[in-house]
Design a protein that fits this description.
This protein is α/β, with parallel strands linked by helices and 179 residues long. 39% of the residues lie in helices and 27% in strands. The longest helix has 30 residues.
Amino acid sequence: INKSPRELWVGLLGILALAMIYMLINFFKGVSIFNEGDKYYARFHDIGEIVKSSPVYINGYKVGNVSDITYDFKEVNNVYIEMSLDKRLQIPQGSYAMIVNKTLGSSTINLVMSQKEVFLQPGDTLYGTLNAGAIHEAGKMLPQITSLLPKVDSILVSLNNVLSNPALNNSVNNIEQLT
């Protein structure tokens, strides 16, 4: 009978510890628990490496996070990203969202703002594009690089033949003796 209040306190402390762990995990992911922002959506054909809690930037300044990702099964190649953005932010019509893939595999969303005076309302959908970055551009050059490999190989073989020639070694020794 005396153990009941102690067990109750242990249970309450366990629940409190789990709640604190949940809040810390979300804090380190950059998700605001208490201050939910306005929801905007962006439609993409390809989302690259975007995941929930990916950051959303305007000119390098973080204005929100990705809060949800859904695939539209009714339309082919349409993925909708829900962004939770700062309530103070006003997005002009004609603005769009651009996914930028970083070199180490992470991705971010950059909002590119237009100069119009009419603003979107929370819940509206932006057009989205994918900027794959330098890795994608290097991938485009891969066929050209592959065609150059036999030529580079023959040049290296010729250079190796010249450098391994004993006459070159003798010439270097003669020059050393002269100096």
